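Assess the record.
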Amino acid sequence: MTTLNVNLCANLQTQTELKQKGVWAYAVYFDSSGNNPTWRPLVLDGAVQQGGTAPIALSDVLPSGKISSLVESPEMTKR
């Protein structure tokens, strides 16, 4: 089994990027049949997780190695 470390660069971890309330970010992958999503949190409500590195154990159920990232953020407030 191989471990892939998904790293958020220092710029993404700053207050102006991901480190703000209402921001959520994940790495997600599916098994070889496209089922059973596995979600690895990167940012939870503006709190960067695990120092910005998420280890993902790659097993035989992930033959293509395709991992997607998803970032959710609050809507911009109208001024």
Q: What stands out?
A: The two ends are 51 Å apart (CA to CA). The CA atoms of residues 22 and 75 lie 9 Å apart. The chain has no helices and six strands. Residues 2-72 form one domain.
